[in-house]
Design goal:
The protein is mostly helical. The chain has a single domain, classed as Nitrile Hydratase, Chain A (Alpha-Beta Complex), CATH 3.90.330. Helix content is about 50%, strand content about 10%. The chain has 11 helices and 4 strands, in the order H-H-H-H-H-E-E-H-H-H-H-E-E-H-H. The strands form 2 sheets. The protein has a two-stranded parallel sheet. The longest helix is centred in the N-terminal third of the chain and has 29 residues.
Length: about 200
């Protein structure tokens, strides 16, 4: 679409809201069901899958090696794959090296592992700024890293979906894999947060 064609049109969010309202008015959808589906994909299915991958890597050194060598195959071992998960590359955060994921062109994201992308991930400001000033953007999002920490910005695309293997927090050595799953957040697997100790 040209600039002339899009000028004066309502935003995509406004058009989506209007479409949902029309479908509700005609009795074609139940808004409560739609809200439950969105919540499920935003917070339960996707991030929980990724958290299982991270916890497995933290507790199984052989799996961790396979995950870092071939993320796609290793995540499929746990049953996670499909559309938007055809080529997963996993990078590991440490005390001195930090990875953060962005999609500068649109919002490519590993849906099978993380669910729906959060609104901030799709925001043009995040997509542009995290590349230019990652320390500042991460700080604004609540993650203050020391100035000597090297940040690598990973640009997802239609060919590659990045997943961050967060640093395991100290004091979790006695926790089971299931207990570790509960600690891992979507934001830590994108690299805009760290996993907090319990």
């Amino acid at each position: 679409m040209t600039a002339e064609e899009t000028a004066g049109r309502p935003s995509a969010a406004l058009r989506t809201e209007a479409l949902e309202q029309l479908l509700v008015e005609r009795g074609l959808i139940d808004p409560a069901v739609v809200d439950r589906l969105i919540t499920t994909y935003e917070t339960n299915i996707g991030p929980l899958n990724g958290a299982k991958v991270v916890a497995k890597a933290w507790t199984d050194p052989a799996y961790r090696e396979r995950l870092l060598a071939d993320g796609t195959a290793a995540t499929k071992e746990l049953g996670f794959g499909g559309p938007q998960g055809e080529h997963i590359v996993v990078v590991e955060n440490s005390a001195k090296d930090h990875n953060v994921v962005v999609c500068t062109l649109c919002s490519c994201y590993p849906w099978p592992l993380l669910g729906l992308p959060p609104s901030w991930y799709k925001d043009p400001a995040y997509r542009a700024r995290v590349v230019r000033e990652p320390h500042k953007v991460l700080s604004e999002m609540g993650l203050d890293l020391d100035a000597d920490v090297r940040i690598t910005v990973r640009d997802s695309s239609s060919e590659v979906r990045w997943l961050v293997l967060p640093e395991r927090p100290a004091g979790t050595e006695s926790l089971s894999e299931e207990e570790l799953v509960e600690l891992v957040t979507r934001d830590a697997m994108v690299g805009v947060a760290k996993v907090a100790a319990p």
